[in-house]
Write a structure and sequence with these properties.
With about 280 residues, the protein is mainly β. The protein has 2 domains: about 190 residues, no CATH class; about 80 residues, Immunoglobulin-like. It is built from 2 helices and 19 strands.
Amino acid sequence: MGIQDMSWQQVYNFDVGDVFHYYGSWWTSLGSWYTTRTIETILGKTVYGNYDTVSYQIEKCVRIDASYPPHYTTSFDTVTKVYNLRDAPLLLPAEFTDTLKPPDYNAKISIQNSRLKKGVITGTNIYEPATSCYTNQFESMYTEDSYIFGLGHTYNYYQYWSDGLFTYSESLAYYKKGTEVWGTPLSTDCSVLTNTENKTVSQESSIDIYPNPAETAAQVFLRGFIGNDNLYFALYNFSGMQVYEGKISANPFTLNRAGRASGLYLLVISDKTGTIIGRSKVNFK
């Protein structure tokens, strides 16, 4: 039957807990460059209508290294991405078709992960019937995009020529979906990537939550923390709003759902001075 089509619903089908790492680079022949490393973790998912639209809450962090000041910047935030998925089957983007040859569509089974991959290549080269060639015009543009089943927009390349050559590319470097893992991670997590990891917690310290996901309550085990009799907890929803707090009176202690909405929450542990000494995620289903 050959390679079958796929819908946008299948391309952007992520689950809570999925992790994606992206590496990007920008370069110009005029001498400047920067690179980006991005980690996105799916925290929440909301489907609207007959899967016409899907909204994802995402923990996103980015590190940028550049050839120009300040040379190094980071960001770490929770963002929302909304995808309109009404187009089916998959209609790959084909902008600039008024000045292009027909876009070069491609489809294959990805070698790295055996998932269906589709893409499109476009450019503003102009076809010359007299020479049967495509000529490179001033201020020309070339783009290449790839989409993979269940992994989203996995590759983007952009090239522009004006008074110099400008190129940008970003590609999926690593992902984890359930038990499926592919690629090489760019960092262990967002705290390490953005250099915001808490250095007061020893490597032996951990927060274990069982069960997780939980329905009505979860047991929280604190391992390797000093001063267990002077610790406090706070629970935040994916919007960053604190919804619950208290003093830890036992180890393990019980974290009750208490009617809170289903979804992913961030559990923060702090000492008596208010210094954050640990974080973990808990999912109420």
